[in-house]
Amino acid sequence: MFRESEIEGINPYSRKIEYIIDNNVIGYIKYSHIYERMELDNLFVEEEYRNRGVGNKLMCYFISLAIEKRVVNITLEVRISNEIARNLYKKYGFREVALRKFYYGDEDGILMEKQVM
Ligand SMILES: CC(C)(COP(=O)(O)OP(=O)(O)OC[C@H]1O[C@@H](n2cnc3c(N)ncnc32)[C@H](O)[C@@H]1OP(=O)(O)O)[C@@H](O)C(=O)NCCC(=O)NCCS
After folding, report:
1. Binding site membership of 84 for ligand 1 (Cβ less than 6 Å)
2. Measured on CA atoms in the order 15, 42, 32, 37, is the torsion positive or negative?
């Protein structure tokens, strides 16, 4: 099952979607919903549950939510070396729009965007 909630802290726009099996959080998406846009801040699946479609389920849920909330676009940054995540995002219609040099200090980041509306 999915559970949606706010993330307490200084950013009032931060929210998360958790994927839960038997009361355990197996994976999550953390994101910011800032008026007409969303920023995907983190996507994570517990290692022993990877390659079983949990990432797919979370992304499908997240994109449906973005459509329901009528956001214009979703953006995210990903490490250039993270081919698994880049594949996943491309599969869901994210385009690579900019290279952010040394975004992660030791590594470049790629800015990706998906038009929703
Ligand atoms: C990225 C991550 C969330 C994927 O979760 P997952 O549950 O294993 O993903 P799924 O099994 O649902 O696969 C979803 C898609 O990811 C891509 N993918 C998954 N495993 C892959 C692999 N070993 N090689 C290449 N692509 C892969 C594919 O596009 C796949 O789509 P498909 O099912 O049609 O092949 C997971 O690997 C993870 O938590 N990684 C560490 C954290 C991270 O890097 N997060 C992204 C930060 S921006």
Report:
1. yes
2. negative
- DSSP run (H or E) holding 114: strand 109-115
Q: What is the pLDDT of residues 50-88, one digit of tens each?
A: 999 999 999 999 999 999 999 999 999 999 999 999 999
Measured distance CA(50)–CA(99) in Å, rounded? 27
- End-to-end Cα spacing for the chain: 27
Q: What pLDDT does 32 receive?
A: 97
Q: Is the CB of 44 under 6 A from ligand 1?
A: yes
CA distance 78 to 89: 9
Nearest alpha carbon, ligand 1 atom 5: 55
- Full-model pTM: 0.96
Q: Enumerate domains of the chain plus CATH numbers.
A: 2-115 (3.40.630.30)
What distance in Å separates the CA atoms of residue 80 and residue 77, rounded to the nearest whole number?
A: 9
